[in-house]
Amino acid sequence: MRALSRVVVSLTLLTSTAWGLGNNFPTRAKVEPCEEVRIAQEEQFSAEPETTIFTVSAELAEKCLQSVPIKKKDALRLVDSISSFWKWQSSLDYLTDPPKGYLLPAVDLIGGLKEIRRNVAKGKYKGEAEFQRALYHLATDAHDGHLDLPLDAISTFFYKRVEIGGLVSVSADGKSLPEIYVQYDLKAAASAELDWTPSAVDRINGKDAVQWLREYSYNDKSHDPDALYNNMFYSIPARTKGFLGGFAHQHAIYTGKTTTIEFKNDTKVTFENIATFTESFEGVNDGKSFYAKFCNATLTTEPNSSAKKRNVVQAAPITQSRAVKDPRALYPDAVYFLSNGDVAGYFLDGEFSDTAVLSVLAFISTYQDGISEAFSELVVRFLAACRKNGKKKLIIDVATNPGGKVFVGFDLFKQLFPNAEIKNRFNFRAHEQYEVLGDKINDLLTDDKLTIADIEQADGLFDPDVYTRADGKKFSSWKEWYGPDTVHGYKFTRPARWDLENPGLTKGGNLMVSGYQDRLDVASQPFDAENIVLLTDGACASTCTILASLLKQQGVRSVVMGGRPRDSPMQAIGGVEGSMVLTLEDLYTIIKPVFDKYITGNELRRLEDTDLGELYRSAPYLMGRTSIDGAANVNYQNALHPDDDTLTPTQFVYEPADCRLFYTQEMMFDISAVWTAAANVAWGGGECVSGSASGAF
Ligand SMILES: *[C@@H]1O[C@H](CO)[C@@H](O)[C@H](O)[C@H]1NC(C)=O
Ligand SMILES: *[C@@H]1O[C@H](CO)[C@@H](O)[C@H](O)[C@H]1NC(C)=O
Ligand SMILES: *[C@@H]1O[C@H](CO)[C@@H](O)[C@H](O)[C@H]1NC(C)=O
After folding, report:
1. pLDDT in tens, 319-337
2. What start-end ranges are recorded for coiled-coil regions in this protein (predicted)?
């Protein structure tokens, strides 16, 4: 719908003809910035009718956004709906007062919303963009990749620095402190016949470059400062996903009309920043009509409660599909690869010819029937090839892995360690909305007289039958699962695990995990734990963190790449460690039929004044105010280590990798140089960055 659909621009009203022919009349002087955007789109469209991505200067885009008025009533309604929804965020309480070991600032999400609400009421925001950015920054301050609030106005433009392109942070030898370079420079130097040495970036917009990038990096959602820093840069895995790094591509953040770079050789260059957009600006003449068009909360797709049953085990948002012709163009030839590029297996040669690499860019990034099974099958085949070819060691490369399907991660683990138990636990925030809905739904689930087909919550979020207790036994009831327990002064459900023996869980399109139900026939353990290394760049999030935790429990070591230029350890896992995403649309799909059919009279009157009542009323509005209908998400499940008696969500636990390495120039063009370096520190006696090696290295 709005975000990605092909734009059809009316060509009947080309005001541009008035000034396209050397006309000296100042016809543009009065043109509103948003109208100028529309005209630019019309021109680009008529010049190239296949165009779906349009470009204007960042300055013009920002002027257009700044001209959009705020509507107080709408803004208040938006804040109230977010407030009810965010109560589902599992880390809400911990974020206000994070335990030692969490490296980022505390944030009070609900308090922050109250403040924004007060500011709206007092008329403090000059326009819609300033208001939405306040919400955006508040959400980002949670540094949780599952907490997403893509609001309509500020999602219209993507700010980019395409002319400079990506930056890289590379070290001369992988151990000495890295410096920053322009990736295009390194590429030109690598391919040039001339003997040219690129100069490092010294300052950005007048500020020390490392400092500038560090500050800027906090606009992203990782919860680790080194992972945030890495996210600024180009890398082969990032490029494979169409991302040149957060410096080149930063959504929604405007940093001025230009970017000035000063190199160490004293050359100073200024580049123009641009903005791209895909929405049709037809009918947009000014900020007011921009608001009417893009901040129009009318849903284009009605949430449909009888639509195909939702998949309960879905962590991490699904990214856009990649071009599939050669999904791994920058990688060497694989032994096997999945058609969408998510996973591929390689063999190293030379000194490490006994080493295999399993590169996992995502635990499913595109929806297709059977894709999870295909992933699992590819791993089966690749591990068989490893056995057949006498491979003794394995590197699991999860750089930039944002997660995906939890059971696909479980399955990979069980193929590597068929005899190990999946002991990872989780809990939910125990709050009024979950309790009231859970009580109601479980009454319905256990009442034979009611037809509950329209609720479709058997084997869903509220059904204790999809979980087991931490000891693997079933919960006796919803009440037993709900608890609540008091942890760290806050209320949570009982710690639980997924019940992988429950066939209901695998009905909804979830993979049946190797070693469970009908898949008891699993090949023997292919590698010893000390011969496996998990290779990350800190970005590992969601399902990736679940796998990392399971591997660590077996004694698998981790090597992490990059990070801030300093000699110190770095965490292997910097992405969100919460383990489940809840979309507003999915939640509303549950709430609506319960309210519409099963809550009446006094109960309805009582609930009207609660957060749940608010969400029932305002969820459609909030869904209509996101850039894609219903695209607001929270994380509803905290991951817990199996042996942590304090039950601290792993999101807040500091865990350094066993060894850290910096990238080298070569690694920017040859991914096998990264793998060889990891093999070399793991098994070849190579050294880690000073101060970063754990006892295991
Ligand atoms: C300084 O280095 C930059 C970046 O490598 C390069 O583009 C520029 O041409 C160099 N300037 C001089 C005077 O060599
Ligand atoms: C809001 O969207 C609906 C549905 O697309 C449309 O019918 C209506 O005209 C829009 N309102 C404005 C003010 O553009
Ligand atoms: C809801 O989804 C079901 C199943 O996909 C479909 O048959 C039905 O037409 C949909 N209803 C609406 C109102 O879109």
Report:
1. 444 445 789 999 999 999 9
2. none
